[in-house]
Amino acid sequence: MIVPGSESQALGAALAAETGEPLAAVRYERFPDGERMASVEVPADADRAVVVAATTTDAAHVELLQLQDAVREAGVEEVVTVLPYMGYGRQERAFEPGQPVSARAVARAISTGTDRVVLVDPHEASVTDCFDVPCDVVRAASRLATPLPGGLTDPLFLSPDAGAVSLAESVRDAYGRGAVDYFDKVRHSGTEVEITPGDAAVEGRDVVVVDDIVATGTTMSESIAVLDDRAAAAVYVACVHPLLARAARTKLERAGVEAIYATDTIERDVTAVSVAPALADAL
Amino acid sequence: MIVPGSESQALGAALAAETGEPLAAVRYERFPDGERMASVEVPADADRAVVVAATTTDAAHVELLQLQDAVREAGVEEVVTVLPYMGYGRQERAFEPGQPVSARAVARAISTGTDRVVLVDPHEASVTDCFDVPCDVVRAASRLATPLPGGLTDPLFLSPDAGAVSLAESVRDAYGRGAVDYFDKVRHSGTEVEITPGDAAVEGRDVVVVDDIVATGTTMSESIAVLDDRAAAAVYVACVHPLLARAARTKLERAGVEAIYATDTIERDVTAVSVAPALADAL
Amino acid sequence: MIVPGSESQALGAALAAETGEPLAAVRYERFPDGERMASVEVPADADRAVVVAATTTDAAHVELLQLQDAVREAGVEEVVTVLPYMGYGRQERAFEPGQPVSARAVARAISTGTDRVVLVDPHEASVTDCFDVPCDVVRAASRLATPLPGGLTDPLFLSPDAGAVSLAESVRDAYGRGAVDYFDKVRHSGTEVEITPGDAAVEGRDVVVVDDIVATGTTMSESIAVLDDRAAAAVYVACVHPLLARAARTKLERAGVEAIYATDTIERDVTAVSVAPALADAL
Amino acid sequence: MIVPGSESQALGAALAAETGEPLAAVRYERFPDGERMASVEVPADADRAVVVAATTTDAAHVELLQLQDAVREAGVEEVVTVLPYMGYGRQERAFEPGQPVSARAVARAISTGTDRVVLVDPHEASVTDCFDVPCDVVRAASRLATPLPGGLTDPLFLSPDAGAVSLAESVRDAYGRGAVDYFDKVRHSGTEVEITPGDAAVEGRDVVVVDDIVATGTTMSESIAVLDDRAAAAVYVACVHPLLARAARTKLERAGVEAIYATDTIERDVTAVSVAPALADAL
C-alpha cells in the first residue's frame, strides 16, 4: 500500500503505478482549532505501508507522523517512509554555537514511526546518520535526462561546484553524450579572478546546469548569467528538488534560462519526470 | 513590463516571452513581524505594468495590492491586473443571510490599484460586475487541447453539468474532432434514476471530462467512477484551474483517471499548457 | 536554564523567576524557504535545560524539536520538556478506523529529544502513556482561584460534565468556600429532559464554570445561557487552557459571561495567573 | 452593532459594553481550499455597524473586507471601521525605490468597504492620508496609566526617541505625577558618546519606558539595559500595541523589565487595559 502525504500525491500515484501496490485512500482534514488530521483507509490484509511525503512545511512534518501512526494503529506490520524531499535536511550540523541540528531533530521524530527510511538525493549524504532506523539513499538525478531535448548541441553538463559534479555526471551518462565540468573560481592576484569553465569551453554549446536543489535561485541565476556572457547557445537547468523559494523562478527566467526540468520529489509546475522508477527499485 | 506575483512566476515569464514585454525583477520579502513586502525594479521608461497574480492565498491578495502600489509609486501610468485565478471568485453572491459577497469584497480592493482587470475563465461570468474598473474575460479552455494525446479513440468531451458544456465544446473544437455531452440526472420514479450519457455513449471511447476548476475533486472523481463503470476506454481530466485541494489528486487517481491536464492559471505539476497566448491577445 | 518556545515566553520568564534558573537567550528565525530555526545561547556550565513550549501550532512542534536538539548539541546533560499545553493531546485514541493517535505520534517525536516530560492538566490522563520517557502531570487548576473576585455571592463551582468535576473542586478548595456541582442531563420520557443543577441551585448565586480547555466555546456558551435562564447572579468562566478558537470569545461574551480567567499554559489576553509555581514544584 | 474581527474579539466585547451597542454574532470559517468566510448575523433594524479588527495578519486583512461586505450586503447603512492596530501601517512611504507604500495599498482596499475609519495611535500620523474616506485618530496612550502600580518611586516616563515623547507625556499626565524625558545620544568627540537621561536622572527611580509599538523588542531591551546600568530602581514597559514578534518578550525579560503593560489593540497576555473607552468617545 502506498500512502501519500498531501504534498506528494502525484508521486504517490506514480509509485503505486510503478510498483503495482494499491494507492491508499487518505483524508487530510483541519479542525477549527487549527489542528490537522491525516487518516488512511487501510485494507485488512495490508502488511506493508509505504508512506511517501515530502516534508516541505512544518504542517507536512506533523502530517507525516500522523500517517505513520495511522497505518501502525490499523495493524500494518511494516512501515517504510519515503522522504522524496527532506525538510531541514540541509541543516545537518550546527553551523554556529547554539544552533540545533534540525535534520537530526526531525529525523529522530520520523524514526519513531517507521521501520526504514528512504531518501532521494539528500544535500549531504551524512544526513542518513541522523536516523535511528535503517536509511537508504536513492540517486535519481539520472532521471533528469529524460525530459531534456534530444538534440542538444555539443552538450556540457555543469555543476555549480565541485561537490555536485557526480549529479552532472549522472545526467550526462543517462543522456548518452556530452562533457561534464563544474564552476571553479581561481584567484590569481588581487582582483584578478578566473572562473572555469572558460569562454572557449562553453561558446556555442548547449549547457545544462545540474544541481540537487534550487532554493532561492541566486547561485543558479548567477551561473546562468556567466554562461550567457560566455556565449553559450542555450542554458538549461536540471535539478532534483525544485524548491524554488520566493522569486527564484523569476530570477532564473530573467537570467535567460531556456527551460527548467525537475523531478517530482517536490511537486511543482517544473516537474517533468518522476523518481518513482528509481524508488520502486529501492522498495 | 510584466510583474509577476509570487504564485504566478511561470505564467509571468511565459507572458513576457509571448508579448515581448520585459519581465520585471521582483522581490518577495517577509519581515520578522510576519508582514510581507513585494517590491519591483521599475525601469524609468516603463509606461505600462501588467501585474499577473493568482490570488490563491490571503497572502497573495495582500501581495497583489503591494505590487500594484509599487508600480504606481514608481510612476507607471497604466496598470493592468491579470488574475489568472481569482481567489474568492466563486463566492460571488451571499448564499445565506449574513454572508459576505467575498468576490466583490476583494474585487473592490483590487480595483483601487489598477486601471483594468483581466480574468481567465471565471466560475461565474457575473463576477466581472464586482470590479469598479473595466474587467475583461479571457477564455482559455481551448488551450487544454494542446497537451491531450493526439490519437484519442472516438473522443467524448464531457462536462460535469450543463453549465460547463461550453468549456467542453471549446476543447473539442480546438482538438478538432469528437463529441460533446454533459452529465445529467433524470429521475423517473421513486428510486429509478437515469444518468446520461448512457452506457452506450461512452463504451470503448476515450472520455475527456472538462471543467473550469477541480477543487476537492469529489464531483470529478465520482464522474470518473461512473465512466469507468460504463466501460469507457480511458478517462482524462482537463481543467483550467487545478486548485486540487486536500486529497483531490489521490481521489482522481484512485478513481482511475488516465491523466490530468491543466493550464498555468494555478501553477501545479499538472500544468501542461500556458494561457499566455490567450492573455497576450487580450493585452 | 529555562528555554522558552516562542509561544511560551511569558511562562518561561515566570518559571525562571520562580525557580531562580536563568532564562536562556533564544532566537527564532525563518529562512527564505519557509524553514525555521530556533537557537539557544547555552552557558558552558549549564547541566540542565527545561524547555517550556506550548505546541499550539505545527510550527511550534518543529520548533520544540529544534530547541531540544540545540541544548543537547551544546552539551547539556539533562533535558526536561514542559508542555504547558500539548497540541494534539485530545486525539489520544483513534475515534474512527484509519485515524492516527495523533497524541502518540507527537509524543514519540518529543520523547526523542528529552529525558522527561511534564504536562499541565491534560484533557485525558492516559495521554502520559503516549510518551517513551517518564511523564509527569502537574495539576494547576487551583491556580485559577487567585484571579477570581474575592467576594463572590454563595459561589457555585460547576463543571460542564462529570469528568471535569475534580477541576471544579480544585478551584473551590483553593478559593476557600462554595459548592461544587456539574451539569447533568436526565431524560425522563420522550422529550422531557431535566438538567441539573436545577433552577433553585443557581438562582442568585455567582457561578464559576470550570473546564480544562475552552476550544470553540460552543459547550461553554450553552452552559452560560442555561445559567442565565436560571437567574444566576453572575457567571464566570475559569479554564486552564484558553485555546479560544474561532469565534469562541464572542460566543462567551454574547452568552453573558461576566469574565474569563485562564492560566498561561496558552498565552492569551484572558491569561490571569501563571502555572509557574505549580511547575516549579514538579521540577 | 459592534462586529469584531477574529483578532479583536475582546476589544469588540469591551466596546459593546462601553457603548451599549449589541455585540454581533459572527462566524469565522475556513473552506477545504483554504479560503475563509467571515459572516455576521445582522438584526433587521441595524443601521450602523462598527467593524473592529486588528489587521495583524494577511488573513485578517481579507477577513476585514468580508465583514465590511457582509454588513453592507445585509442592508446596514453606515459602516465604521475601527483598526485598533493597522497592519502595514509603518510602511507609509517607499523607503527604497521600487517599494510599495503598503499602508496606502491596504488603506485603499479598506476604504472601499466603509464610510469612515478610526485608527488608534498610528506609528505615523500621516498614515491617515492613505485612506479615501474620513479617518480619525484616537489617542489611547493615557489608558496605560491605569494598570501601572500606584506607588511608583519618583517616576520617570521615558520615550525611546524624541518622536514618541508625547506618548510618555500622556501616560504621565494620566498617572498624575512624575517627570518626562527621552533617550538622546550626543556624540562629543571620537568615541565619546553621552546618552541622556544621565545616571543622576534615573538612579533610584522607577522608570516607565513608553512607546507606541514593541515589535522585535531590540530597541526596547537595549533601553532597559542602559537604565539598569544606571541604577534605575525598576523599569516598566508601557506600550499601546504589543506586537511582540519573535523573541521580543524574552529579550525584555532578560534585560530585566519589571512588568509590561499594553492595551487591547493587539490582544496579548500583556494586555492590561482596554482602549474601548477612548474609542467609544470617538464613535
UniProtKB/TrEMBL annotation, chains A, B, C, D:
Catalytic activity: D-ribose 5-phosphate + ATP = 5-phospho-alpha-D-ribose 1-diphosphate + AMP + H(+)
Residues at which D-ribose 5-phosphate binds: R187, D211
Active-site annotation: K185
The entry's keywords: ATP-binding, Cytoplasm, Kinase, Magnesium, Metal-binding, Nucleotide biosynthesis, Nucleotide-binding, Transferase
Top-level taxonomic group: Archaea
SMART domains reported in the protein's UniProt record: Pribosyltran_N (SM01400)
Chain ranges of the Ribose-phosphate pyrophosphokinase N-terminal domain: 2-111
UniProt binding sites for ATP: D33, G34, E35, R90, Q91
Keyword Cytoplasm (UniProt): yes
Cited function: Involved in the biosynthesis of the central metabolite phospho-alpha-D-ribosyl-1-pyrophosphate (PRPP) via the transfer of pyrophosphoryl group from ATP to 1-hydroxyl of ribose-5-phosphate (Rib-5-P).
Entry protein name: Ribose-phosphate pyrophosphokinase
Organism per entry: Haloplanus rallus
GN (gene name): prs
